[in-house]
């Protein structure tokens, strides 16, 4: 069975959770390989809504194994809360279903306090983080002063590491004007207790995955955020603090690159973005507000209204290139029902010239004006569509045109929030 990576091909919030949930029916193992609880995957199964922030969406399927890899930064309080909530609803009956990498870095109280204080201090120049400590945790990881899951399991080691880091953290908070002073003893006590809860799931995830693949188990690697938020390949500095592209699936989970067989990108039938940064096809008018309301475009984690716009073929072509996409899943096509005319950004105008590829320079991208191609809309309700032939002709033409402009085939189309409201044209797990 092949191993498949699913990543966001826009600015995140593309509907990866739903598609991962669907593909999990064919996978044996689901792996989260980067990001933290700044991501929220919303799933609707049987009309019941579930929002997961850390644990992979596959946890809703009995018998499936879920792994949180070394590339993820883990807020232990959120992790424990998710476990308790899942168990209350009858999930995670088997503790062995969930594996947490011993090498995943831990979001500590100072990371969250510093994150919030920096954003408040930055004012109009803020990045637009969720304030959950993701960036400062990755900073400590790179600076080689981070605290990992394995450290929470040894209280004496944890106490040493907290003591080594907390003084400088409190100094930074004071410089930022934050009215907070973190208590060393309280942090050690609370996080040692959290460590005892995490110990049930903590493993050498790299070795665990290696053995699973050797046994012929199929693995689904689940990305968080989206390509254009990648710290190297996104709209820097308006990005997240990790690599969101497909290549990081192996780094963030501890398997080799030859373990990956296929890469699938997820895109909405329109586009959205959260936070600051350039967004050429953004709609700041009634049409943009209509997309927001019809699509329920409010953050699953923060509740913040998302910026909305038409789909951007240049951005998707860029995502196809840096991820090596084998296929696209087009989500929320049903949201476009009722629009008389639809637009696709097929090029940009930059300083009076036509540009056919996404500029790599942020300032160029900020000046870029979209050049649109118009397509006719449709009025038919798509909710009952389960086959390609069930879609109105204009909906089919829209999907086909997106695939043509991006140069990647569309393998699935979502026509509603529920798991079964999906037209699967090709399953990437088919050998």
Chain-wise SSE layout:
Blueprint: E1 4-8, H1 16-23, E2 29-32, E3 41-45, E4 48-52, E5 65-68, E6 73-74, H2 76-88, E7 98-101, E8 105-106, H3 109-122, H4 134-142, H5 149-152, H6 155-175, H7 184-198, E9 202-203, H8 205-214, E10 219-222, H9 248-251, E11 262-268, E12 271-273, H10 286-295, E13 307-309, E14 311-312, H11 313-323, E15 327-331, E16 341-350, E17 353-355, H12 362-367, E18 369-376, H13 393-406, E19 410-414, E20 422-424
Parallel strand pairs: 1-10, 1-11, 2-5, 2-10, 5-7, 6-8, 7-9, 11-15, 14-16, 15-19
Antiparallel strand pairs: 3-4, 12-13, 16-17, 16-18, 19-20
Helix pairs in contact: 2-7, 3-4, 3-6, 6-7
Binding site for GTP: 12-18, 40-42, 306, 332-334, 414-416
Keywords: Cytoplasm, GTP-binding, Ligase, Magnesium, Metal-binding, Nucleotide-binding, Purine biosynthesis
Protein name: Adenylosuccinate synthetase
Named CATH architecture of the largest domain: 3-Layer(aba) Sandwich
Percent of sequence in beta strands: 15-25%
Q: Using the alpha-carbon principal axes, give the shape.
A: globular
Which fold name is given in CATH as the topology of the largest domain? Adenylosuccinate Synthetase, Chain A, domain 1
Low-confidence stretches: none
Whole-number tally of structural domains: 2
- Rounded to the nearest angstrom, the distance between the terminal CA atoms is 6 Å
Number of helices: 13
The CATH superfamily of the largest domain is identified as Adenylosuccinate Synthetase, subunit A, domain 1
Which class do the helix and strand fractions yield?
alpha/beta
Major β-sheet strand ordering? 9-7-5-2-10-1-11-15-19-20
**For the report, how would you describe the main beta sheet?**
10 strands, mixed
| Nearest-integer average pLDDT | 93
Global Rg: 22 Å
CATH class of the largest domain: Alpha Beta
């Amino acid at each position: 069975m092949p191993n498949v990576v699913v990543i966001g091909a826009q600015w995140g919030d593309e509907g990866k959770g739903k598609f991962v949930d669907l593909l999990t029916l064919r996978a044996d193992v689901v792996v989260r390989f980067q990001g933290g609880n700044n991501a929220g995957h919303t799933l609707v199964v049987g009309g019941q809504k579930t929002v997961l922030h850390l644990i992979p969406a596959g946890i809703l399927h009995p018998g499936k194994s879920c792994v949180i890899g070394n590339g993820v930064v883990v807020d232990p309080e959120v992790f424990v809360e998710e476990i308790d909530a899942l168990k209350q609803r009858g999930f995670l009956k088997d503790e062995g279903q969930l594996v947490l990498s011993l090498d995943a870095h831990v979001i500590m109280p100072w990371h969250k306090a510093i994150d919030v204080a920096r954003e408040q201090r930055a004012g109009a120049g803020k990045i637009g983080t969720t304030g959950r400590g993701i960036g400062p945790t990755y900073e400590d990881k790179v600076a080689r002063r981070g605290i990992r899951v394995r450290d929470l399991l040894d209280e004496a080691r944890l106490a040493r590491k907290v003591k080594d880091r907390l003084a400088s953290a409190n100094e930074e908070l004071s410089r930022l004007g934050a009215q907070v002073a973190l208590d060393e003893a309280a942090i050690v006590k609370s996080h040692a207790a959290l460590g005892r809860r995490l110990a049930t799931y903590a493993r050498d995830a790299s070795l665990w995955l290696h053995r699973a693949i050797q046994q012929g188990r199929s693995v689904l690697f689940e990305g968080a955020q989206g390509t254009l938020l990648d710290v190297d390949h996104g709209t820097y500095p308006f990005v997240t603090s990790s690599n969101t592209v497909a290549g990081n699936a192996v780094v963030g989970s501890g398997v080799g690159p030859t373990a990956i067989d296929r890469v699938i990108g997820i895109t909405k039938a329109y586009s959205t973005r959260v936070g600051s940064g350039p967004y050429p096809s953004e709609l700041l008018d009634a049409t943009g507000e209509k997309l927001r309301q019809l699509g329920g475009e409010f953050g699953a984690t923060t509740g913040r209204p998302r910026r909305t716009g038409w789909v951007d073929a240049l951005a998707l072509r860029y995502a196809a290139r840096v991820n090596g996409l084998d296929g696209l899943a087009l989500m929320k096509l049903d949201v476009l029902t009722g629009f008389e005319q639809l637009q696709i950004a097929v090029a940009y105008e930059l300083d009076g010239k036509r540009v056919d590829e996404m500029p790599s320079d942020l300032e160029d991208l900020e000046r870029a004006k979209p050049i649109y191609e118009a397509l006719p809309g449709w009025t038919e309700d798509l909710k009952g569509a389960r086959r390609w032939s069930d879609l109105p002709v204009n909906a089919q033409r829209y999907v086909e045109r997106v695939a043509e402009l991006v140069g990647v085939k569309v393998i699935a189309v979502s026509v509603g929030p529920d798991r079964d409201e999906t037209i699967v044209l090709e399953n990437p797990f088919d050998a």
